[in-house]
Write a structure and sequence with these properties.
There is one protein chain. This protein has 29 helices and 19 strands. With about 725 residues, the protein is of the alpha+beta class. The chain has five domains: about 210 residues, Orthogonal Bundle (Hypothetical protein af1432); about 140 residues, 2-Layer Sandwich (Beta Polymerase, domain 2), CATH 3.30.460.10; about 70 residues, Beta-grasp domain (Ubiquitin-like (UB roll), Roll); about 150 residues, no CATH class; about 80 residues, 2-Layer Sandwich (Alpha-Beta Plaits), CATH 3.30.70. Strands 1-2-5-4-3 form a five-stranded mixed sheet. A five-stranded mixed sheet has the order 11-15-13-14-12. Helix 5 crosses helix 8 and helix 12 crosses helix 13. It starts with 5 loop residues before the first helix and ends with a strand.
Length: about 725
């Protein structure tokens, strides 16, 4: 029986290493929780103190002081008793022998689920700390999808750890600070918890760049008298005008944090003096209509800067944040930033999903901020299902945690929030993965635009789809949202695998035909035995590996036809019969690559060379490198072009022209008239009379190339054209 069984807990005297902190916590809880729930939280403290007995933090304090501090942070947000019990026990499963079953029996399955959601995966074996951290993060996000309170406990845990970070070693401090700034502070912002976010950012900045933090903090603290007087003057004039309008309000000046000043300096390439020379105020009123009344009042005191007004009340941010933002031209030439919001909006801005906590068991539903958070997490879970690994998932989440967003309208008038610099293709994937996969163009404010078009807030976007359309690798270059990036990668991986299986099948068929056999004639049990010996779960995996150059088709064919023991001897000829060629249709782009040394196009005599991991690389038979490749006949693949080959293929043209203005435009026009695309242009040589240019263009076959060359040669300014 575990030492944490129920009788032991009931009988053992409870240690009390931090009585003052617990009493302060109980007083805070008594303000909003019934007495029986306060006693339940006290019981969690007794169980936690017993479990952590004898454990000391690096700061020298009893370990239980940390869970109590985490619970106190959540009590400030007025969270429920279950969350507070889980907060006090959040490290117990990970660091003590206390079993989950004991937490379920003593408290509830919900409390045990919350504790388990915050617990890291340290007990499993990982290749390195980075992979372990990424997998633990994925586990936490999955738990968060089931119950939002998991992330609230984790954020409070991280905040208290950051407050006591000085006790850690320098390397650990930097690693934890970087993780805080890259992941946890943006999550707090995404959930609208600005109070947590601001402190996490400030503490992370101080730990990561202590000298920079100190310099900026000192400058904030020692503002010149003239600036303080100017700030007071602006505040007095705004307050006077609001009073005249008989608007009940609170007006406070906002001081920028060292982190926000530092990031603004980096992003906008401004000096410290330029960033500090901005006044900020927040006006809080009682009702929504009073916000707009107050806006008119402040605009009557100072003129607004054009294009700097944002209405986040009518169009809330994705995290539920609502406020009016305006920038005024102040009396001293410095901008005056003003935020105007109601009391309720101010609560949501500070606490986000934790404001007015309405847990589902109460039957009163969730707040708007919580609903938005759940939608965001649901999208993340779609992303994690398609992600290949926990590290890829973590990278995608980082991409999705953009501080700035654009707000867009669907044709039905619904609002969608996307990361800054999002394109029409990001919007398509935000609507639905299938819409993204089949998108061909978009209408932005009823104007037809390409999918790579960047979007701006307030635009109305409609996606045009076609059943035949599908993602290409270039799509990854112009999407920024994690959902779009993951969906495209997933599609391309699946496509590449299907292409590899198809090509591997054809290669193995040709190899078996050369041995007067076929895949259909190989007994099923022999194939199963071969897969088991080579450690493949399915035949498709072996076929894909053949296409990728990791297995020789002739060798696999011989093993299939003659049995596993009949392997080729070193140096023994294992090539395909010369008459049996693999035909290229143009649909194998996922696993075939075309050599950059000779750029083969349909119509050229070609051969393939199997390169491990890269698959088949196609060369022209007159390529200078082919002689070397033929020394390894087992890797040479006879190939030819299919009669109906499709696609565009790159070719390099060396063009000698007269050195005078407008020549490049003439050559480019001739290429375009031939229905060819120009990928790149390089000047190789240039003197007073003649220039040599190299054009990288796309053609569909040799006849198409001949047409392009003919059109270029007709130009009077061209002295010669040569294919490289």
């Amino acid at each position: 029986m575990s030492s944490f069984s129920k009788p032991t807990l009931a009988q053992a005297p409870c240690p009390d290493p931090c009585p003052d902190a617990v009493l302060a916590l109980e007083r805070r809880l008594a303000e909003y929780l019934p007495p029986e729930q306060v006693l339940r939280v006290r019981r969690a403290y007794e169980v936690g103190a017993r479990a952590h007995e004898g454990q000391i933090r690096k700061s020298g304090e009893a370990y239980i002081t940390h869970p109590v501090a985490v619970a106190s942070l959540l009590a400030d947000l007025r969270l429920d008793a279950e969350t507070l019990c889980a907060a006090i026990l959040h490290d117990a499963l990970e660091d003590t022998p206390l079993p989950r079953s004991e937490i379920e029996r003593e408290f509830s399955p919900a409390v045990a689920e919350l504790v388990d959601g915050v617990t890291k995966l340290d007990k499993l074996q990982f290749r390195d700390r980075q992979e372990a951290a990424a997998e633990s993060f994925r586990k936490m996000m999955l738990a968060m999808a089931r119950d939002l309170r998991v992330i609230l406990i984790k954020l409070a845990d991280r905040l208290h750890n950051m407050r006591t970070l000085d006790a850690m070693a320098a390397d650990s401090r930097r690693r934890i600070a970087r993780e805080t700034l890259e992941i946890y502070a943006p999550i707090a912002q995404r959930l609208g918890m600005n109070k947590f976010k601001a402190e996490l950012q400030d503490l992370g900045f101080r730990a990561l760049h202590p000298k920079r933090h100190e310099v900026i903090s000192r400058r904030i603290a020692s503002q010149p008298v003239m600036r303080r007087e100017a700030l007071a003057t602006v505040e007095a004039q705004l307050a006077q005008r609001l009073a005249k309008e008989q608007l009940p309000h609170s007006l406070v000046s906002r001081v920028k944090s060292p982190w926000s000043i530092y990031t603004k300096m980096k992003q906008e390439h401004k000096s410290l003096d330029q960033v500090l020379d901005v006044f900020g105020f927040r006006i809080v009123v009682h009702e929504v209509m009073q916000c707009y009344h107050a806006l008119g009042a402040v605009h009557s005191v100072y003129k607004p800067l054009e294009g700097r007004f944002r209405d986040f009340i009518a169009i809330p941010k994705a995290n539920g944040y609502q406020s009016l933002h305006t920038v005024l031209f102040g009396p001293y030439g410095a901008p005056v930033e003003v935020q105007i919001r109601t009391d309720e909006m101010d609560q949501v801005a500070e606490r986000g999903v934790a404001a007015h906590w309405l847990y589902k068991s109460s039957g009163s539903g969730s707040s708007a901020a919580q609903t938005r958070a759940q939608d965001w997490i649901r999208n993340l879970m779609d992303t994690q299902q398609a992600a290949g690994s926990s590290l890829e998932f973590l990278d995608n989440v980082k991409v999705d945690l953009f501080p700035d967003e654009v707000y867009l309208f669907t044709p039905q008038g619904d609002i969608m929030a996307l990361p800054r610099n999002a394109t029409a293709l990001d919007f398509a994937y935000a609507v639905h993965t299938d819409v993204g996969n089949h998108a061909v163009a978009a209408r932005v404010d009823k104007k037809l635009v390409p999918l790579r078009t960047k979007l701006a807030s307030g635009q109305s976007v409609e996606i045009i789809t076609a059943p035949s359309a599908s993602p290409g690798p270039q799509w990854l270059e112009y999407v920024v949202s994690s959902k779009a990036r993951t969906a495209i990668r997933h599609f391309l991986k699946r496509l590449e695998h299907e292409d590899a299986v198809d090509l591997g099948h054809r290669m193995l068929d040709r190899a078996l035909e050369a041995m007067e056999s076929s895949l259909d004639r190989v007994p099923a049990d022999r194939i199963e035995q071969l897969l088991a010996d080579l450690r493949y779960r399915r035949l498709e995996e072996l076929l894909a590996d053949i296409a990728l150059g990791n297995r020789m088709p002739a060798q696999v064919a011989r093993m299939m036809a003659n049995g596993q023991d009949d392997l080729p001897l070193p140096g023994e000829e294992t090539t395909l019969a010369p008459t049996e060629r693999i035909m290229i249709t143009g649909n194998e782009r996922g696993v075939l690559s075309f050599a950059a040394c000779c750029h083969p196009i349909p119509g050229d005599e070609i051969m393939g060379y199997l390169s491990a991991g890269k698959g088949v690389v196609v060369h022209r038979t007159d390529c200078p490198n082919v002689a070397e490749y033929r020394k390894f006949p087992e890797r040479c693949v006879p190939m030819a072009w299919d009669r109906n080959v499709e696609g565009d293929y790159r070719v390099i043209l060396r063009i000698e022209v007269e050195n005078k203005p407008g020549v490049l435009a003439q050559v480019a026009a001739a290429v375009a008239e031939s229905d060819s695309n120009i990928d790149a242009v390089e000047y190789r040589e240039r003197d007073l009379t003649v220039s040599v240019m190299e054009f990288s263009i796309e053609v569909s076959h040799r006849k198409h190339l001949a047409d392009v060359i003919r059109r270029i040669r007709r130009l009077g300014v061209v002295h010669g054209v040569q294919r490289l």
